[in-house]
Amino acid sequence: MKTAYDDTNIFAKILRGELPAQKLYEDDATFAFMDIMPRGHGHCLVIPKAPSRNILDVTPDSLSAVMATVQKLSRAVVKAFDADGVTVQQFNEPAGGQVVFHLHFHVIPRFDGVSLKPHSGDMEKPEVLAANADRIRKALNDA
Ligand code: AMP
């Protein structure tokens, strides 16, 4: 199975500034922002800037850069929400649960006794996303 990268996907549009996002972090190779249908309080996403569809076609350099940002965001969300843990998820191709075809890692703060909500469930209120993004940006700045 080999499917080409399609630059009309939602995250490519966010990277080009054609769609809005609650930006959390950016460096030369990666970008992080809030998930608009969070599975938990503070759920965010980390993507590479270089085009890649998923884990199957990403270059090792781009993947390394993304993982470094995943760790940064994982530490930041735990600090921002005083979380008990963090779940990192990543899906590949429709059979693997992937819905948006630009590589991304989910970073979800976890709290004892609180289950994840359904994948791609309800849209979060913009004001809640904004407030959570502020907390994460503050934790990143204080790191
Ligand atoms: P998946 O491809 O299965 O990893 O899921 C895609 C994820 O992207 C889901 O968690 C969605 O809630 C999230 N999502 C979809 N559209 C947007 C958007 N415009 N901004 C932020 N997150 C999004």
Quick overview of this protein structure:
The chain is of the alpha+beta class and 143 residues long.
How much is the radius of gyration in Å? 14 Å
Bin the strand percentage. Answer: 15-25%
Helix percent band:
25-40%
Q: In the CATH scheme, what's the topology name?
A: HIT family, subunit A
Shape: globular
Largest sheet: 5 strands, antiparallel
Helix run count? 3
Classified in CATH, the superfamily is: HIT-like
Q: CATH top level? A: Alpha Beta
Textual characterization of the structure:
This protein has helices spanning 10-15, 60-81, 126-142, and strands spanning 23-26, 30-34, 44-48, 85-89, 105-110. The radius of gyration is 14 Å and the shape is globular. It has a single domain (10-142), classed as HIT family, subunit A. Helix 2 (60-81) packs across helix 3 (126-142). The chain has 143 residues and is α+β, with helices and mostly antiparallel strands. It has a five-stranded antiparallel sheet with strand order 1-2-3-5-4. Strand 1 and strand 2 (30-34) form a beta hairpin. Bound molecules: adenosine monophosphate (AMP). Adenosine monophosphate (AMP) is lined by residues 10, 19, 21, 35-37, 45, 91, 97-100, 104, 120.
